[in-house]
Amino acid sequence: MSKVVEISPTTRHEGHSKLVLKVNDEGIIERGDWLSITPVRGIEKLAIGKTMEQVPKIASRVCGICPIAHTLAATEAMEASIGVEIPEDAKLLRYILQCANRMHSHAIHNILTLPDMYIPGTDTKINPFTKEEPVRSVALRIQRLREIGQTIGEMVGGEAIHPSNPRVGGMYMNITPRAKAKIYDLAKEARVLAQDQMEFMIAILRNYQNRDFAEVGGTEVPIPKDLGYHNQGYMATDPVYGSSSLDENPTWYPERFTEVRPWDWYMGEMEVSEADPNYPIGGTTPVGTKTWPQMQACTGVPLYDGQPVEVGPRARLVQFKNYDEKGAIGLQIARQMEYPETAYGIINALDALNTSGDVVADYIPQGDGSLGWAANEAPRGTDVHMAQVRDGRVEYFSMLVPTTWNFPTCSRALEGAPWRLAEVIMRAYDPCVSCATHMLVVDEDKRIVTQKLIQ
Amino acid sequence: MDVLGNYKSVISARSADKDIQKKAQDGGIVTTLFAYALEEGIIDGAIVAGPSDEPWKPKPMVVTTKEELLAAAGTRYTISPNLQLIKEATRSYGLDRVGIVGTPCQVQATRKCQLYPIGMRDVDDKIALVLGIYCMENLSYQALEAIVEDHCNQKMESVKKMDIGKGKFTVYTERGAVSQMPLKYIHKYVQPGCHVCLDYVANLADISTGSVGSPDGWSTVFVRSNKGNAVWDGAMAAGLFETKDMADVKPGLDLVKKLATEKITKNQKHVDERKSFGLKSDGTPKALRNPYETP
Ligand SMILES: Cc1cc2nc3c(=O)[nH]c(=O)nc-3n(C[C@H](O)[C@H](O)[C@H](O)COP(=O)(O)OP(=O)(O)OC[C@H]3O[C@@H](n4cnc5c(N)ncnc54)[C@H](O)[C@@H]3O)c2cc1C
Ligand code: SF4
């Protein structure tokens, strides 16, 4: 007889979500639904009629951890719709901004991950807030990486959270030679720290893989070797930056995308029949509580070739570097492997940057309603925005953000794991639930979108 | 309230640098101090009122060299929104130690964004030297044009220097002409916002300076904060200024105090009048907002 356990809210990730888990007598997940319960804010609908300059600034506010992704994807979707090619130096500044944000974002996720992990050779879990060594030095290194990422983001992007510098047609400002020198210094410092942090994290993650059990709320939970395995595909558009419909050879294919309602995907109404008051901290949902994932999920379910796909660091490494490690820890390791390029990417782009170069296109068309899209490889994966601009105003806007893609995939990946490790699997995706909760896509809209895309 | 604010010392001074003396409004205090602070690494850039495409219309600018400082020297009697660049200076300009010059209200804004940084992330700790210039009132650009072109009957582009002092607005042209307007006519041109201003000598600056109190070509300098003191001492030790004891110069500190008192008294009255500016239907007064009080 299977039972229903619910963890609500889930913790140590961005936003508000829950896990509804059907488990067998051994507490192994038979079917799991991980869903957003963050209120829908409806950015896509309120964008209609606003100016193409304004919408990316609003879209940025979808999320404060990866605002860079939404700003750049939205701005570039507008640029793709109106058909404007931005100057090379503007592209380089955006690339630096992208790398700086990824550095900061991966580092902050380390803080969220570490409390699940153990100090190697011990049964002591890592508390990133302790003043004790060796953890303290690691926490300080993480903070320095974040500080560097945010400082560089601030200089090239105008602001680290909700960058002000990007605009339709390029950037408002180039940087001064002094700022360039400062960014070099910071990136060179980060290059060393990022390498050390990557090696540290991989050692910690490998140690977890080699463990037989993890302790959760006083219970010893066996760690399966296939923790978080799934058979869904991967989707990524670029190792670092992204792609858009202006590219000669775009790497995302709108015609392969469809979206279904949560109704068609998630489980129906159920009653919680198992609970653990000791699950840290505050226990799981009490027995007898009604839960209804189909109705409660606040995101549409995007599919690629009719299937959920995984996006994010591993997807990028699978597509572009032949990476092949599966499971939750494999995904975590892939994320760490992206560290070095965040610093090298900045240094290489700086080498190419001309601080006297123009950063705004000479002529910015106002748009004739053509559909354009842009994909940004956000820290958490492919963030696709689609837009139609006419006479400078947005007629249609849609955001397909990374965590939305990962919700159904991660739900599949929960199967076969002890329910007390479901959050460990979920955290491997570095969920950004505010990002994911943008708008429900109803059937008619979907049809219109796909038709227009194929034309 | 002490109308001159807190200060450690007050000196009459002028720059020992002849190039600066030629370009500066008064004693060249601002230009000399920024040049020194740049040289010493106390600041790595300064926000000043730089030249723009239109004659006598200032444009806020981040400068990093003495040449640029010289190009921005002198007073423009019109609004230069120097605070516009306070955040950007720490962004695309990449500055770590920002110098800024401004009128008392701009110095207040700088301090406020240090203590209450609303949308001013990472700015507070990068403000390294705040120089204030005394200010009785300011003018819009159109007002300045009306004064220069109508009252003084000179073309803006031929003007070499403008000065307020001894009850006159004085315009000096490149070709040597001098025209004046009695200051009593200035009232209708003044920025209305200046009528609620209760600070004459930039009380919140590290160092503040103006012409009043000292002879022509000299400045009256208040050294206020610990930082201001260290910078001033350094510049003195480097021999950058000639100084006179304030007690020995005419018209001296008394005049500064007199003008400060007049400004504050007049404007405080204006602030108070706003409390009963309007009338509600029940006959009680309806106030205009008072930024110095919490509603
Ligand atoms: C609107 C206004 C009213 C003033 N009223 C008085 C007064 O009533 N009594 C008095 O003693 N002094 C007054 N001053 C100050 C005086 O005119 C000189 O600016 C001051 O003495 C500094 O001279 P200096 O030779 O040391 O500076 P300089 O070396 O000439 O440098 C002056 C600096 O001020 C900056 N600056 C110029 N115009 C502006 C502006 N509009 N806003 C912000 N920064 C600017 C310049 O960029 C330059 O860096 C006023 C100044 C202004 C701008
Ligand atoms: S009078 Fe006051 S408000 Fe007006 S410009 Fe001068 S300092 Fe600013």
UniProtKB/TrEMBL annotation, chain A:
SUPFAM superfamilies: HydB/Nqo4-like (SSF56762)
EC identifiers of the protein: 1.12.98.1
GO molecular function, one term: iron-sulfur cluster binding
Name of a matching Pfam family: NiFeSe_Hases
Residues reported to bind Fe cation: 66, 435
Keyword vocabulary terms for this entry: Iron, Magnesium, Metal-binding, Nickel, Oxidoreductase
Protein's UniProt keywords contain S-adenosyl-L-methionine: no
Binding site for Mg(2+): 44, 399, 438
Protein name stated in the entry: Coenzyme F420 hydrogenase subunit alpha
Organism of origin: Methanoculleus taiwanensis
UniProtKB/TrEMBL annotation, chain B:
Superkingdom assignment: Archaea
Name the record gives this protein: Coenzyme F420 hydrogenase subunit beta
Necessary cofactors: FAD
Biased amino acid composition, Basic and acidic residues: 267-276
Limits of the Coenzyme F420 hydrogenase/dehydrogenase beta subunit C-terminal domain: 96-248
Keyword Iron: yes
Keyword Cell membrane listed: no
Region (Disordered): 267-295
Top enzyme category: oxidoreductase
UniProt keyword list: Iron, Iron-sulfur, Metal-binding, Oxidoreductase
InterPro entries: Co_F420_Hydgase/DH_bsu_N (IPR007516), FRHB/FDHB/HCAR-like (IPR045220), FrhB_archaea (IPR017679), FrhB_FdhB_C (IPR007525)
Annotated EC: 1.12.98.1
Record domain Coenzyme F420 hydrogenase/dehydrogenase beta subunit N-terminal: where: 10-87
Any one GO molecular function term: oxidoreductase activity, acting on CH or CH2 groups, with an iron-sulfur protein as acceptor
Signal peptide residues on this chain, from the entry's feature table: none
Naturally occurring in which organism (per UniProt): Methanoculleus taiwanensis
